[in-house]
């Protein structure tokens, strides 16, 4: 006992407690700051990767794609390019027009119901009810005029924006532009279909993955057909060692990081479109699709189901799973109930929970799923936030794609 530094048992207990508390504070401090430390590490790693990619790009890619990534000498498409990064120059106006049109449909339906009630021969409304109906019709007429004014304004704004892109169109942006060149008179549905099919490089080539995957895959395998697309091109080589090229996989990733670093997000401008010397072609051989894309399913649930019955549209669960996972990214939020109800058990929950609610008393499971996808804001499941699920799936999906996804979800008992 004489050899102990702290002889008192009480003092040793106090020292042990103090050291334990100190260690817990230290561990807590490290845990609190670990995320920031890791984020800083990721930024440093990404920064170094971009720097290495810049050196590779300057020595291997700039001759054809341009020093600043705008394309050069009609040899290859520009990569510093808002079209490649998915920026829609008229996205805001198109959303405004689509939203107002949907509201117009609802207001028109309400108007028709009131007029039917007002003119009912078998059960005519009383005088007081007639006055109420007339007042409601006046209010609906004012709302319809307001929505139409919003559409007219958005259409005018869209025309003004697109008129600034004439030079970019001449350089290859929107190669099917002639199909909607009369933007003031072309139907809104046709314009929306056009931008859904040509608005970004990934939709133009039918790529179902993300931009990183598209760039890496292109770097690995090259673009043999590009020699037939650009007059001065010798064809993009396969750069990866796995495909007979000179670059390791880490160098491929560095190049991809440098290219992706050009993305300005929502800050692209018309000037950025005009700076691109040449845009990517829709197909490897330079040809253009001869048939217009199929129309979107829309968000009229009854109309969708009626079309499926009339046109005998049957969904494929296997295709639906691919669309659900990769094409539309539904799994990202629905896997394990991360940000939305879990995919697994979809049918059971609809049958035992959702369809027991008064507003869904007459619904089928299929009808509920279609409405949930095309009109997600109409009903939000308790425990989840409104507005998280995109409201434009009806405009992005064809009838067949929607039917395939519904067929897949019906397998999730």
Q: Could you give the topology of this structure?
A:
Blueprint lengths: L8 H52 L1 H4 L25 H28 L8 H37 L2 H5 L17 H11 L2 H5 L5 H11 L27 H12 L9 H6 L25 H11 L5 H11 L3 H4 L11 H7 L12 H10 L18 H4 L2 H11 L4
**What is the fold named in CATH at topology level of the domain at 301-409?**
Cytochrome Bc1 Complex, Chain D, domain 2
Spans of at least 5 consecutive residues whose pLDDT stays below 50 are 284-291
The top level CATH class name of the domain at 301-409: Mainly Alpha
Query: Kindly, what is the distance between the CA atoms of the first and last residues, rounded to a whole number of angstroms?
Result: 70 Å
Oligomer: single chain
Q: Could you say what the CATH architecture of the domain at 301-409 is?
A: Orthogonal Bundle
In percent terms, what proportion of residues is strand? under 5%
Q: Class by helix and strand content?
A: mainly alpha
For the secondary structure, the number of strands is: 0
Shape: globular
From the alpha-carbon coordinates, what is the Rg to the nearest angstrom? 29 Å
- Helix percent band: 55-70%
Number of helices: 17
The helix-strand sequence is HHHHHHHHHHHHHHHHH
Mean pLDDT across all amino acids: 84
> Considering the protein shown, what is the CATH homologous superfamily of the domain at 301-409?
Cytochrome c-like domain
Q: Largest beta sheet, briefly?
A: none
Overview of the structural elements:
- This protein has 413 residues and is an all-alpha fold.
- Among the domains are: 91-198; 301-409, Cytochrome c-like domain (Cytochrome Bc1 Complex, Chain D, domain 2), CATH 1.10.760.10.
- 55% of the residues lie in helices and 0% in strands.
- Helix 1 (9-60) packs across helix 9 (249-260), helix 3 (91-118) packs antiparallel against helix 4 (127-163) and helix 12 (317-327) packs across helix 17 (399-409).
- The longest helix has 52 residues, at 9-60.
- Mean pLDDT is 84; it is low at 284-291.
């Amino acid at each position: 006992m004489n050899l102990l530094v702290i002889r008192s048992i009480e003092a040793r207990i106090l020292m042990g407690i103090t050291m334990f508390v100190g260690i817990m504070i230290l561990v807590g401090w490290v845990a609190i700051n670990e995320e920031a430390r890791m984020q800083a590490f990721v930024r440093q790693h990404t920064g170094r990767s971009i720097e290495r990619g810049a050196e590779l790009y300057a020595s291997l890619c700039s001759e054809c794609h341009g020093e600043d990534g705008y394309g050069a000498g009609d040899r290859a498409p520009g990569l510093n390019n808002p079209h490649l990064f998915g920026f829609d120059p008229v996205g805001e106006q198109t959303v405004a027009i689509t939203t107002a049109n949907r509201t117009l449909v609802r207001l028109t339906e309400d108007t028709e119901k009131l007029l039917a009630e007002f003119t009912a021969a078998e059960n005519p409304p009383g005088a007081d009810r007639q006055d109420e109906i007339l007042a409601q019709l006046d209010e609906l007429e004012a709302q319809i005029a307001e929505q139409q004014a919003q559409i007219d304004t958005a259409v005018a704004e869209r025309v003004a924006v697109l008129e600034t892109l004439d030079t970019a169109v001449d350089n290859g942006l929107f190669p099917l532009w002639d199909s909607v060149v009369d933007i003031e008179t072309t139907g809104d549905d046709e314009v929306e279909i056009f931008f859904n099919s040509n608005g970004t490089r990934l939709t133009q080539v039918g790529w179902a993955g993300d931009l990183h995957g598209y760039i890496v895959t292109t770097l690995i395998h090259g673009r043999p057909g590009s020699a037939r697309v650009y007059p001065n091109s010798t064809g993009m080589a396969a750069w990866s060692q796995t495909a007979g090229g000179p670059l390791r996989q880490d160098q491929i990733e560095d190049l991809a990081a440098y290219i992706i670093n050009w993305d300005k997000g929502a800050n692209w401008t018309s000037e950025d479109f005009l700076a691109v010397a040449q845009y990517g072609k829709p197909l490897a051989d330079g040809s253009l699709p001869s048939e217009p894309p199929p129309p979107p399913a829309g968000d009229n649930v009854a109309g969708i189901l009626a079309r499926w019955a009339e046109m005998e549209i049957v969904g494929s669960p296997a295709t639906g799973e691919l669309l659900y996972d990769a094409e539309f990214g539904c799994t990202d939020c629905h896997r394990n109930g991360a940000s939305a109800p879990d995919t697994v058990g979809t049918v059971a929950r609809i049958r035992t929970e959702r369809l027991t609610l008064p507003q869904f008393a007459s619904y089928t499971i299929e009808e509920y799923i279609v409405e949930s996808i095309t009109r997600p804001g109409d009903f939000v499941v308790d425990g989840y936030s409104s507005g998280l699920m995109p409201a434009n799936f009806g405009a992005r999906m064809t009838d067949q794609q929607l039917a395939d996804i519904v067929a897949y979800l019906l397998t999730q008992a």
